[in-house]
Structures are given as structure tokens and as C-alpha cells.
């Protein structure tokens, strides 16, 4: 069985053997590789409908099927990567995330990703926006996807398919939304 020394190079997804759930079999029976020409690493994963998304640094792939049957791995896009796993949010049944190159993308269950950040691409590429990390939340009560990056925040207003983008100042460092439709911002010392 695999131990830390033998785990993959961040190109694979492993799952435990249902009969022996204490480790990962070296047989490869419970491993799927997401390998492409970039050789970029998996940065985040999220399920949507009947597929599992594997977000890599420069590409997006999906896996569908069942461990007891056929499993299919398919790359959807080779220029829609992921900046930070904390930017992935479910927004009305679709996944929205931040990419370090082009901004924001949206995708649903195996369809091709759509570049929804085009209207704010100039602001996203501005020098004051640092692409070191991104933290997002879906504030369902206001129909806002809010993503903070050092230097600024971007808000996607999806009320009734509106699709407007706003840029907020970056006076906060963290954001989260709870099950009661409250949105919380923090500057590292205060929460409001």
C-alpha cells in the first residue's frame, strides 16, 4: 500500500479500496491520472451534478463513472486553470472559480467552461491585484459571488441572470457566507 513516500506527483486522484479502506493499493486499480501536456498539478476538486471536477494550474478536467464500472477522465479546457481552491463556489448549480491568467470561469457538469470574467479582465490584470491567493463565497441572499484577491475584490451579481461585475476595494482579507444567508468579512482582526 502507498505511503507518503510513494504517493503521486499531484497528477492523480486516489480512492480507498472498498474492501480494505486503510490505504491506497499500489495496483493502480484505485487511481486516475489527470495528465496533460502542461504537466501541471491538481490544485482543487469539486463535484457538480454527476461529475468530479479536477482543477489544475492551467487546465480543467472532469471524471465521471463509478469505481465498480468504467471511469472516464476528460479535459474540458486547457486554458482555464485554477488560482486557488478556495475560489471555487457553487452558484445556482454551476461552478464559478478564479484563474490566475484570464479571471473568472463558470462551468456545469461536463460542459465546456465559459469565461465570464471578460468584462472585468482589465481590472483583474491590473498591477495592484496580486494573484497569490483567492478566497470566495456565494452570498445567496444577495445573489453575489464575491472573490477576494490581495489588492481588491470582485463581485459577480447573478440575480435573475443579470451577470454584472463590480470591483470592491480590498479592505478585507477573508470572506465567508453561512447557511442562514449571512455574509461575513474579516480584515484579520475584526469580523463584520
What can you tell me about this protein's structure?
With 192 residues, this protein is mostly beta strands. Helices cover 2% and strands 41% of the residues. The chain has one helix and 16 strands. The protein has one helix spanning 121-124; strands at residues 12-14, 31-33, 42-48, 51-56, 60-65, 71-77, 89-91, 94-99, 103-107, 114-115, 135-139, 144-149, 152-157, 164-168, 174-177, 183-186. The chain has a four-stranded antiparallel sheet with strand order 3-4-5-6, with no helix packed on it. Strands 7-8-9-10 form a four-stranded antiparallel sheet, with no helix packed on it. β3 and β4 form a beta hairpin. The longest helix is centred in the middle third of the chain and has 4 residues, at 121-124. The protein starts with 11 loop residues before the first strand and ends in a 6-residue tail after the last strand. The mean pLDDT is 83.
Order of helices and strands: EEEEEEEEEEHEEEEEE
| Proportion of strand residues | 35-45%
Uncertain runs: none
Averaged pLDDT, please?
Answer: 83
Counting H and I runs of at least 4 residues, what is the number of helices?
Answer: 1
Strand order of the largest sheet: 3-4-5-6
Q: Specify the structural class.
A: mainly beta
Distance between the termini: 47 Å
Percent helix range: under 10%
Specify the overall morphology. globular
Oligomer: single chain
Tell me the number of strands.
16
Please tell me how large the radius of gyration is.
Answer: 18 Å
Largest sheet: 4 strands, antiparallel
Amino acid at each position: 500500500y502507498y505511503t507518503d513516500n510513494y504517493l503521486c506527483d499531484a497528477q492523480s486522484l486516489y480512492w480507498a479500496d472498498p474492501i480494505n479502506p486503510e490505504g491506497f493499493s499500489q495496483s493502480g486499480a484505485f487511481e486516475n491520472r489527470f495528465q496533460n501536456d502542461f504537466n501541471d498539478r491538481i490544485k482543487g476538486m469539486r463535484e457538480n451534478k454527476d461529475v468530479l471536477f479536477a482543477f489544475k494550474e492551467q487546465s480543467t478536467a472532469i471524471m465521471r463513472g463509478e469505481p465498480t464500472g468504467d471511469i472516464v477522465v476528460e479535459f474540458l479546457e486547457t486554458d482555464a486553470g485554477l488560482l486557488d481552491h478556495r475560489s471555487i463556489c457553487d452558484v445556482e448549480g454551476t461552478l464559478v472559480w478564479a484563474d490566475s491568467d484570464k479571471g473568472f470561469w463558470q462551468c456545469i457538469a461536463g460542459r465546456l467552461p465559459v469565461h465570464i470574467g471578460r468584462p472585468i479582465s482589465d481590472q483583474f490584470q491590473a498591477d495592484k491585484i496580486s494573484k497569490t491567493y483567492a478566497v470566495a463565497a456565494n452570498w445567496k441572499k444577495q445573489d453575489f459571488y464575491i472573490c477576494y484577491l490581495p489588492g481588491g475584490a470582485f463581485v459577480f451579481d447573478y440575480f435573475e441572470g443579470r451577470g454584472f461585475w463590480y470591483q470592491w476595494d480590498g479592505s478585507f482579507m477573508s470572506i465567508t457566507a453561512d447557511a442562514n444567508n449571512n455574509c461575513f468579512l474579516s480584515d484579520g482582526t475584526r469580523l463584520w
